[in-house]
Amino acid sequence: MNVMAASVHRKQSNITGGAVMKIFLSMLLLIASTCRLVSRDGVPDGAAPARLDSLPKLLSISSGNQTRPSAAGLDEVVTLRVELLRALLERSAKERSPVALFIDGIPLRGAAPSAIIAERGELSFQLQSSGPARALWDNYLQTRGRDHFFTQDVSVTAGLENGSLAAGMPTVLPNFSLVLIRRPIFFFCIALAVFLFLLFHIVAFKSDLLRDAGTGPSAGRKPYSLSRTQMALWFFIVIVSFLMLWVETGRIDTMPVSVVVMLGISAATALGGAAIDTNRTSGGAPERSDNFIFDILSDDHGVCIHRFQMAGWTIVLAVVFLYTVFTEMRMPEFDGSILLLMGISSGTYLGYKIPERFRTAPV
Predict the structure, then answer these.
(1) Beta carbons within 8 Å of 141's beta carbon, 6+ residues apart
(2) Tens digits of per-residue pLDDT, 263-276?
(3) What is the distance between the alpha carbons of residues 170 and 70, in angstroms, rounded to a whole number?
(4) Average pLDDT for 163-189
(5) The model's pTM
(6) Cβ contact 361:289 at 8 Å
(7) Model pLDDT for residues 63-95, shown as the tens digit of each residue
(8) Is 329 left (phi over 0), alpha (psi -120 to 50) or beta?
(9) In 3-state terms, what secondary structure has residue 280?
């Protein structure tokens, strides 16, 4: 009996030891797989996890502009002082991922540092208007709110383009600002546009700049010309839009070919109308101006549909033009059908103008 009991005891001991060994091995495998997952999520394969005290850290941000060191615009330099900059450069070489500037967490890919001073821990980036910063600026211009018309508060940091170290360099400083529109240039262009408008208004009031060509009446003044008014309207809309887009984007290639064609159509219409007025030989008293609206919408038979059509389409396209400029920061691209419509409207106006006789505005 004692022998049998000892045998049973040894078997139970073997079973218990085997179960414990299996549990121990299972725990080891679970720990190893967990560590493998953490390694994949935290650092690249083959790289030792970095200690928190060995990660690069952002110390300060400044621009090259001495008058506003906490803000930068296009074609200006942003300088970052980084603690343990050499570690960032070594990580960049090891992972073959270049150092990049991050604005609101978005890397400016392809914009390499313009200067690196490792001894002082300084990284400098130039925000070139023809580089990746251009698309970021355009996005801020189109999505900005009323409180960010001139500047946009952003978070700025540096890291690798693949994003592996950007989170390790949080911005612990006050927000940095991007200068979307330079205030002095903006207000100068506004003043210039107002000056041109007032100058044109004075000249037009005291001269026949917007009035029909040809012989004037003995009493009163010649009537206003629809074609000249249209030409002046498009001139001011395009020049103000061009100035505003130049101030906001810094670009001068903002005028599409269709806008140039539209200006050509309005100029040709005004030229044709002047030629017809000058060579008019029909009898009757010279035309006399009654008021601006009646002058541009009427001929010798009164208010006529072809003049109303031309004036109506001009107003509609002008509203579309200004809305596109102010909301999308670009001049609209008029397609061929719109340009053809303007040409037909102008041609109809000139065709009806040829047989017009001298008229006298109603009293």
Answers:
(1) 180, 248, 249, 329
(2) 999 999 988 888 87
(3) 17
(4) 70
(5) 0.62
(6) yes
(7) 877 778 888 888 888 888 888 888 888 888 888
(8) left
(9) coil
Give the pLDDT confidence score for residue 175 in this predicted structure: 67
Helix boundaries (H) for the chain: 2-42, 85-95, 132-143, 183-206, 226-249, 257-278, 292-297, 305-328, 336-353
Cβ neighbours of 37 (radius 10 Å): 9
| Region of residue 45 (left: phi > 0; alpha: psi -120 to 50; beta: else) | beta
Compute the chain's Rg from CA coordinates. Answer: 37
What is the Cβ-side half-sphere exposure of residue 245, based on CA atoms within 13 angstroms?
23
Q: Are 76 and 128 in contact (CB under 8 A)?
A: no
* Topology at the third CATH level for domain 52-180: Immunoglobulin-like (2.60.40)
Q: Where in the chain is the domain with CATH 2.60.40?
A: 52-180
Are 100 and 111 in contact by the 8 Å Cβ rule? The answer is yes
Alpha carbons within 13 A on the beta-carbon side of 262: 28
Q: How would residue 15 be classed by pLDDT, with cut points 50, 70 and 90?
A: very low
> What letter represents residue 2's amino acid?
N
Nearest to 97 by CA among 89, 105, 87: 89
The predicted pLDDT at position 320 comes to 93
Distance CA 101, CA 107 (A): 6
Alpha-carbon gap, residue 88 to 357, rounded angstroms: 83
Could you tell me if 248 and 150 are in contact, meaning their C-beta atoms sit under 8 angstroms apart?
Answer: no
